[in-house]
């Protein structure tokens, strides 16, 4: 998950790193996301924050 603002730059980096502009190397795509469960982060202070 990334913000809309970051999408183009990240997709461009994925395309380059994965050589997705070559046949047989796979695809990259963007889909809208409405809800997420189970997303947890380990914070620098050792605490866990879940959304």
Report on this structure:
By secondary structure, the chain is an alpha+beta fold. Helix content is 22%, strand content 12%. It contains one helix and two strands, in the order αββ. Strands 1-2 form a two-stranded antiparallel sheet. The longest helix has 11 residues. The radius of gyration is 15 Å and the shape is elongated.
Q: N-to-C terminal Cα separation, in Å?
A: 13 Å
How many domain regions?
1
Strand elements, count: 2
Main sheet strand line-up: 1-2
Entry keywords:
alpha+beta, 51 residues, two-stranded antiparallel sheet, elongated
Short description:
The protein has 51 residues and is α+β, with helices and mostly antiparallel strands. 22% of the residues lie in helices and 12% in strands. The chain has a two-stranded antiparallel sheet.
Question: How is this fold's topology laid out?
Answer:
Elements: H1 7-17, E1 40-42, E2 48-50
Antiparallel strand pairs: 1-2
């Amino acid at each position: 998950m990334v913000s809309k603002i970051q999408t183009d730059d990240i997709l461009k980096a994925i395309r380059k790193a994965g050589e997705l502009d070559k046949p047989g190397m796979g695809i990259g795509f963007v889909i809208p996301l409405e809800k997420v469960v189970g997303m947890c982060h380990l914070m620098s202070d050792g605490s866990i924050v879940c959304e």
